[in-house]
Design a protein that fits this description.
By secondary structure, the protein is of the alpha+beta class. The protein has one domain. About 45% of the residues lie in helices and about 20% in strands. It has ten helices and eleven strands. Strands 1, 4, 5 and 6 form a four-stranded antiparallel beta sheet that branches. Strands 7-8-9-10 form a four-stranded antiparallel beta sheet. A three-stranded mixed beta sheet has the order 2-3-11, with no helix packed on it.
Length: about 270
């Protein structure tokens, strides 16, 4: 599900400018990332986009993998919470729910003060359960939005990937879609990724410690410490997915707001 390839060690570029070049654990995570979910490959650029970029050596998202890891693990707390069937069913067509909530918001787009109160007291409370389970790859141009919704032993992954560049080129190969899978398989696949990633990073750190870096600043002791810290943090956060959520959504309130919204946009 989660695929990656770290950049060859000798091709990792330090940050900064001469004579202040630096290298740390973060920069050693430079590499390619792509997700295979259902029949789609997320973070894969279209051939037209690759030709447009001109100098891109691979078709995948090339960035520091730690950014993806931090974004993804940041939503584990909410992913582990099973959601009511009524709202899980809505995630089959998340765009419709988003469209309906926008219509509701537009109804109140009149007086500025009333609109502001409505936005935070009603609208935001209705939609927050979707945003809390989503990350947007905001560091990328046209970055995919990925959402994860659990219902007991199932989880639905929803992605929004369709982005058109200013010149009319479709950026990604994947079309907007969703895929349902066993929750236990989902957790297992994340675990496999973590094991593979940190094993690969063990080698990166080993190479970095062994190498003489000349004028490039690198704290080798800190590099070893951070590798251990990052690994422990990842797997301790992963454990959240098998535990009952402590940060529970007020579904009664969400349902009341949903029913109100449905009634108001129908009669608008």
């Amino acid at each position: 599900m989660i695929n990656f390839k770290l950049k060859d060690f000798d091709k990792i570029v330090p940050v900064g400018q001469e004579p202040d070049l630096r290298l740390s654990w973060f920069w050693l995570t430079d590499g390619d990332l792509w997700l295979t979910i259902g029949n789609e490959t997320i973070y894969e650029y279209s051939k037209e986009a690759i030709n447009n970029f001109g100098d891109k050596p691979t078709p995948y998202n090339d960035y520091y993998l730690v950014r993806f890891i931090e974004d993804f693990t940041g939503v584990f707390e909410k992913i582990r919470e099973t959601i009511p069937q009524k709202f899980y069913d809505l995630t089959k067509d998340l765009k419709k729910f988003q469209s309906d909530t926008q219509k509701w918001l537009d109804i109140y787009d009149t007086d500025e003060d009333d609109y502001s109160d409505f936005y935070f007291e009603e609208y935001d409370k209705l939609i927050s359960w979707t945003f809390q389970r989503t990350f947007d790859s905001g560091h990328l141009i046209g970055g995919p939005h990925l959402s994860f919704f659990r219902r007991n032993d199932k989880v639905r992954v929803v992605w929004e990937t369709e982005h058109i560049l200013e010149n009319g080129i479709s950026l990604w190969t994947a079309k907007d879609g969703s895929f349902e899978m066993e929750y236990s398989d989902f957790v297992d696949k994340i675990k496999v990724f973590g094991q593979s990633f940190f094993a690969a990073m063990d080698k990166q750190v080993e190479f970095a410690v062994a190498k003489e870096w000349s004028n490039i600043k690198i704290d080798k002791q800190r590099l070893v410490e951070e590798q251990k810290e990052r690994k422990n943090k990842f797997f301790s956060t992963l454990l959240l997915l098998d535990q009952e959520s402590t940060d529970k959504t007020n579904w009664t309130e969400v349902e009341q707001l949903f029913n109100r919204m449905t009634n108001e946009i129908t009669n608008a």
